[in-house]
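User: What would this chain look like folded?
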Amino acid sequence: MAQAPLLQLANISLTFGGNPVFDGLDLVIQPGDRVALVGRNGSGKSTLMKVMAGLVEADQGARSLSPGTSVGYMEQDPDFAGFATLGEFATQNLDPAEHYRVEMAAEGLDFDPALDPARASGGERRRAALAKLLAEAPELMLLDEPTNHLDINAIGWLEARLRETRAAYVLISHDRAFLRALTRATLWVDRGQVRRRDSGFDGFEDWRDTLWAEEDEARHKLNRKIKAEARWAVEGISARRKRNQGRVRALQALRAERAGQIKRQGTAAMALEAAPPSGKLVAELEHVDKGFGDRVILRDFSLRVMRGECVAFVGPNGVGKTTLLRLITGELEPDQGSIRRGTNLVTAVFDQTRAQLDPNATLWENLTGDPLMRVSGQADQVMVRGQPKHVVGYLKEFLFDESQARAPVRSLSGGEKARLLLARIMAQPANLLVLDEPTNDLDIETLDLLQDILSEFDGTVLLVSHDRDFIDRIATTTLVFEGEGRVTAYAGGWTDARAQTVEGVKSSANTVAVATGSKGKPKAGQKRGLSFTESHRLESLPAEIDRLEAEIAKLGELLSDPELFSRAPAKFQKATEALAMRKAALEQAEEDWLSLSEKAETAR
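Assistant: Here's the prediction, encoded as structure tokens.
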């Protein structure tokens, strides 16, 4: 027997003043659905998710929720008013006996539940909102950019949690690796229409490009037909005026159809121009130590960066990635060791905090106020790679319209701020790009363009990112920060790093291994140890086993109540199913730990 849908939207129309956001939209979410919700920035993804959550009421149409279905929504900017701590916010809808769920989520997502929201960063506040949703465990989860501000370890933890849940969920994310790993269906929001593809995000881009090509061909045929009919109207209408009024009306209909077609938004006209080449050596660090108080950032660290490399920095938040960038560029000096920097370096920096942008100044002022972009005596001109351009014209190249030019930067979305900062960086030639979290908030099309530009860039790129797919596409070397001053270099991107063994080859002729212990290939007959993935799994298993044991104990306490079945049969059923699932997961985790421990011991 087919299950009833969890959520249905029927004939939804919504307009915010101008063109309709949606018109005649139909949508169904089934139990167990794992859906990617994708589209350009500003296409209406978040608005659609708010309609699904019941937070935005459509102008017309119906939203139907299956009786008894609980829906949880994680928004991008949660409201913490009235809550003294992040934990208090996250546990507001839970029984005291269930507060442990928030504590375990806080550990996996790496935030302090006791922190005052007023003192918390935007990332910490978003992680608390995510923990709240996961702890409440609704039947349908709506997650708007859950991976933003998560480091690579927390993203892996969240992937594991979503992979094991039985709930349905809809994800908005620009993290392609995250979407590929988790989704089984794709909703594409494009110019007010929502198309559904009953397979996951993998393959979406090819499907999208095919539909766009078909649309372009249909538009081309319509244009040719309009031209032919218009020529007939001019040359033959006078002789056959009465008999062919229908054909004239058909021509008017064709023109109306063409006028009604909404043009696709183009991609930003981003471009980079390399400054004159730097020296062959960009930076060489030898036996560098760096710390702040008792906190060790780097210990006996060595690295050589050569011209033309793209070096990715990967690791948990706060582990020292930005500190290493500042050491390489000369903003900081080491406590011990030496740093030799190359010659003729012309550096452009993309700061993850967007500190280079004045939030109270307009977009216009942020460009014309930059000394490197200012054109003497011209208040409306900026210098772009040696050529003067009108401010508005240059902003349009980065998909800003004229009305935004005089708006304050604080009114922009995260993706728009990223594009504005890229506009500043790309106006000036550089041969060393320092990009600290450039992929946050950028849509998939803009990420594709940025990837292509960086791949063709003749200079050197230092990249901090948690976007595994982006790293895989452009990195020649990946530095993995392991904490306590340990950093390991791997040839290639993130997937390459995961595939290589800890003892294996850590460098190629174009990269230099970081001095972090034993070096070189195994000797003949020497047994290889665990792979990087297996080592990470073995290290994470004790915490996972502890978590599962704690959850089993809590569920056991809950089910020990003799009146639970009669008082709350649905809760009893859910707890029983959750207990069985966690016991199976615990058994598998213990088997994995034994197997990997034996393998590690055998390799010694």
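The chain has five domains: 7-206, 207-260, 280-346+430-515, 358-428, 532-602. If you want, I can go into more detail on any region.
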